[in-house]
Each structure stands twice: as structure tokens, then as C-alpha cells.
Design goal:
Layout: H1 3-29, H2 34-65, H3 69-82
Length: 83
């Protein structure tokens, strides 16, 4: 997958997350059930974590292709820590 294709997929994910957050705002305004709101917040957080992982993986691949082992190791450590 090219960098542009990956970036496009990430942007699509972020737009979906934006829609989720807007939905959460409406749920709060309409005083929906707390558990339903928390469930949606959890889903949005999970989606953001996946975006973060995709970004780190993309950066790790970039570093590996440029043969910068110290950067690659740092990114992998961050990836593992943040997942």
C-alpha cells in the first residue's frame, strides 16, 4: 500500500470518528442513557487507537525503508507501549 493510499484510509477513519463524536454530543444534549453514551465514547477511543497504530506503523515502515534502525526501534517501542 502506498503512503497516499494509507493516508486516504486514515482520513476516512478520522471522518468516521468525527461523526461518532458529533453523535456523542447529540446524545449528551438529548440526555440519553449514560451507559449508551459511554459505549459510544469507548468505540470512538478504540477507533482513535487504531488510527494511532496505523500512523506509527506507517512511520516505522518509512524508517525501515530508509534504514534508520534507531528510529525504527523507537517507533516499535512506542507502538507496543501505546497499544
Amino acid at each position: 500500500m502506498t503512503k497516499i493510499e494509507n493516508q486516504d484510509k486514515i482520513m476516512v477513519r478520522l471522518k468516521k470518528i468525527k461523526g461518532q463524536v458529533e453523535g456523542i454530543e447529540k446524545m449528551i444534549q438529548k440526555q440519553r442513557n449514560c451507559l449508551e453514551i459511554v459505549q459510544q465514547v469507548t468505540a470512538a477511543r478504540s477507533a482513535l487507537a487504531k488510527v494511532g497504530g496505523a500512523l506509527l506503523a506507517q512511520d516505522a515502515c518509512r524508517c525501515e525503508t530508509k534504514k534508520r534502525p534507531k528510529d525504527f526501534e523507537k517507533i516499535i517501542n512506542n507502538l507496543v507501549k501505546n497499544l
